[in-house]
Automatic annotation (TrEMBL):
InterPro entries per the UniProt record, alphabetical: Asparaginase_II
Phylogenetic placement of the source organism: Bacteria, Bacillati, Actinomycetota, Actinomycetes, Pseudonocardiales
Organism for this UniProt entry: Pseudonocardia cypriaca
Superkingdom of the organism of origin: Bacteria
Name under which the protein is recorded: Asparaginase
Pfam (any one): Asparaginase_II
Length: 320
């Protein structure tokens, strides 16, 4: 159970008083893959949600997907739905001879508030195109075209594409065949893993040899972080601030990252809140020797619209 053995990983401080705490599970791996620090239960089974998109992209490249650069980063994205994101999804689809009518992901408005407002003001409704996983779904469809697989059933867990993704998750995480399979918010199959396994997968992607699918994914994410998230998004800002970093967030308080030397981390917040992720993740990176991330990880606690405190990582726990 995700709540069992979870420990305090962040404190919400208002006016010098701890108002709330967030509990979770954290793992930090050394470059050799050994566990440098574990807090809570690094081996708990959980759903990594969109943090697995980089692993899914590796599987798609292995199956014949022909994307690199910004469009490969978009295939890994939980994008904000800004105009260039939508244009990029259309480019992926057009390259496979498809269009947005082929998408089967759940309709939604853009994540970005300004983009969502502009979309609605223009008279539009929630669509699969504007949902944040449309980059992944367009890449899944393009993979099916490249491999000669049926497109209509690409979301079925027993589809060849999803079987390949499942096998790649098992391989890169080192967790073995996923114990649980369900449906993600976007409609695609979702496979379970562990925080330690998620960190191992990111370390393998971050250190992969040039020319491999893993390296192609890492290179795309490093070079095009805006396409992975969007304007002002934490993963985008973090990758921009840390040379060589590979990172991705996921719904329900999940985050994973890896440095070029193979150091890696994974975080799962037990209550599902994304609020503590920036200070917790940047605090962990600072323990790995990455300096100057205070502004990137700061989450202010507001009183009448003004900062009166902030969310702080419980670094004493990580160092114990």
């Amino acid at each position: 159970m995700i709540g069992e053995r979870a420990q305090v990983v962040a404190r919400v401080v208002r006016g010098g008083v701890v108002e709330s705490v967030h509990r979770g599970h954290v793992v930090v791996l050394a470059p050799d893959g050994s566990v440098r620090a574990g807090y809570g239960d690094p081996d708990v089974t959980f759903f990594a949600r969109s943090s697995l998109k980089l692993v899914q992209a590796v599987a798609m490249l292995r199956c014949g997907l022909d994307l690199d650069g910004e469009l490969l980063a978009l295939a890994c994205a939980s994008h904000s739905g800004e105009p260039d994101h939508l244009a990029g999804v259309r480019r992926i689809l057009a390259g496979a001879g498809l269009d947005e009518a082929d998408l089967q992901n759940t309709p939604a408005l853009p994540l970005d508030t300004d983009a969502a407002t502009a979309w609605v003001v223009a008279g539009n409704k929630p669509t699969p195109l504007t949902q944040n996983c449309s980059g992944k779904h367009s890449a899944m469809l393009a993979t099916c075209v490249a491999a000669g697989w049926d497109r209509a059933g690409y979301r079925a867990p027993d589809h060849p594409l999803q079987r390949a993704i499942r096998a790649t998750i098992a391989e890169l995480t080192g967790d073995g065949d996923p114990l649980h399979v369900t449906v993600d918010g976007c409609g695609a199959p979702l496979f379970s893993c562990t925080p330690a396994g998620l960190a191992r997968a990111f370390a393998r992607i971050a250190t992969a040899p040039v020319g491999t699918p893993e390296h192609r994914v890492a290179a795309a994410v490093r070079a095009h972080p805006w396409w992975l998230g969007g304007t002002g998004r934490f993963p985008t800002r973090l990758i921009e601030a840390v040379p060589g970093l590979v990172a991705k967030d996921g719904a329900e308080g999940v985050f994973a990252a890896a440095l070029p030397d193979g150091s890696a981390l994974a975080v799962k917040i037990a209550d599902g809140s994304p609020r503590p992720l920036p200070p917790v993740v940047t605090g962990l990176l600072e323990t790995l020797g990455v300096p100057g991330l205070g502004a990137v990880g700061r989450v202010a606690v507001l009183g009448h619209g003004e900062p009166v405190g902030e969310v702080e990582p419980a670094l004493d726990a990580f160092r114990s």
